Model the fold of this input.
Amino acid sequence: MSARHRPAEQPALVVEHISKFFHLPQPPLWKRLLGARVELPAPGELPVISEGEKAPVAAVDHVSFTIERGEIFGVLGPNGSGKSTLIRLISTLLTADRGCARIFGIDIRADEMAAKQLISRVSVDAAFFKKLSPMENLLYGARLYGVTGSEAKIKAYEILGRLGLKRATYTEPMEEMSRGMQQKVAIARAFLTSPILLLLDEPTTGLDPRSKREVRAFIEELRDSHDATILITTHDMEEADLLCDRVSVIHEGRLVATDTPAALKRSIATNGEQPTLEDVFMRLTGEKLVDRDATEAPGT
Amino acid sequence: MQNKLRGIASLRLELLQSYGFMARNWHLTKRYWGWEVVWFFYSLTSGLSVVFIAQGAEALTGSAPGFDVQYLTMYLIIGTLVWRYLSNIFMLTSEVIAWERWEGTIEYTLMAPVQRWVHLVGQTGYSLVYSLITTLAIGIAMALFFELDLADANLLGAGAVILAGSLSLIAIGIVASILPLLYPERGAQMTNVVEAAFLLISGVYYPITVLPEWMQAIAVISPVTFVLDGTRAAVLEGAGLAELWQYILPLLILGVLALPIGLRLFRAAENYAKRTGRLKRVG
Done:
C-alpha cells in the first residue's frame, strides 16, 4: 500500500490492546537463548518480584481506541500515566510488548517505513540542534521527509510568520530563543512535512496564553484545511475541551474513559451542576492534575 | 515502466535524505567554527610535536644519528596525516548517535521515514569529505615546517590505499556507534577507547614489530596497519599499483564484508533500544 494512500473507509488510527511494560522479571539467559520469552502479565496485574529486583511498570496497559479521519483526539492524564509512552509506541520509537497500532490500515510494525511517512510528532521538549537556526533545523527536518530545500524554505517562511516569529530570528541559533519560541518552531517543523497523523505530546506546555491560542488555531486549521488527524496529549483541560472532538483519560497506563468532552461532563453531572473537564479528570483519576511527580519508567 | 518510475522516485528521496544529513553536518561545522579552529591547531601542534622527535634525534642522543632523519620525518608525517584522516572518519561515523543524544534530537531523527543505511550514507559521506579537507589543511601547514621529499612518491597509489582503507574504518565506526545507542550515558566515551586501541596497535608512529608479540597478532588484522604500510610503501618507496595491491585487496575485502555486518548490527541494536526504551533523549 502506498504511504500516502488513505482509503476513506479506514480509520486514521486504530490502537488495539497495546501494552508496554518495563522491568518485567526476565527468564535466565540460558532459557532465553532456548527461546523462552518474558511472561506478560494480564490486564491490570503485575508480577510479584523478589527483594532487590526493580519493580515492574505497566507504562501502557491494554490500551485500545480508534481515531477517525479528521478527528482531534485528546489523551489526558497525570504525569507518569503513560501518555508519552503511548505516543512513542505509535511513533515507532518504542516496540509494544503486546497489541498493535494501524495508521490508515498500515501496521506500524509490519510496515514501519510506510507508517513513519504518515506521522509527525511534536514532543514536550523541543528537540533541535541548538546551535542551528530555525531555518537550518527546518530544512534538515523537511529533507528527511522528502521535501526539497527550496520548497521547504517557502513553506517555512509562511508557517513561521503565521506562528508569530520575527524574521530576524529565523537565522539565529535556536539556543538564543525562548522555550515558547522553540516550541513554535517545533510545531512549524511538524506542519512543514504535511503529516496525515500528527502526534502532539503536550505541545503548548510552557507557552504564554497568546502563543497557546495561536498554536490552537493552527492545529484546528491543519485539521480543517489539510485533512490531518490529530492525537494530542495535554494537562490543559481547557485546551482539551476547546480543541478535542473526543478525549480519553489515561490513568496508570490504562484508559479509564473515552467520549466527547460534553458527554464526559454530563456523565458526572449531579443536581444540575455544570462540571468542567477538570472535574471529570479528578473524578476519574482521583488525583490533582500535576501533583504527582511520578518516578518515570524508561519510556514514559 | 511503473516500477522504473517508482525506483527513480525512491532513489531521489534517498539522495535528498542523505543530502539532508550532510547539509545538517555542514551547518553544524559552520556554527561550531571556533571549535574547528581549536581542533585544527590542536591536530597541527600534536602532529608537529611527534615529527620534531625525528629532527631532535641528534640532540637527544648526543651523536649523529645512524639513520636517515629525512626518512624518519616523512615516516612520522605519513603516520600523523593518515591517522588524522582515518581517526576523523572513525570518530564522525561512530558519533552518528552520540550527536543526536547530545542535542536531544535522537527521537526526532530516528522516527523520520529514513532507511538506516541512507542515514549512515549521509553521515559517512560527510565524514569522508570533512576528513579529507581537514587532513589536507594540516598536511599543507606541516609542509611549512619540514622539507617534504615527494620526488619518487606514488601519490595516486597512496590515495587508492587510503580510499580502500576508509571503507573498513566506516564499518568499524558504524559498529562503534552502537555503543551510544545501547549505553546512553557512557557509550560515547567507550568509542574513544576503541580509537585509542587502534592508535596503539596499528603502527602509526612506529613499526608494529616493536610491539609485544600478542599485540602484533592483533596489529596485523587492523585495517589501519594495512593503510599505513601501503601509504608508506607508496610515498617513501614509490611502490606501484601492482605492489600496493597486497594492501588494497585485503582492505577492500574487509570493507565489503564489514559494512553489511556493521549495518546489520546497528539495526539489531536499534531494535533492542526500541524494545527497552533506550531511545529516549539522555545526555
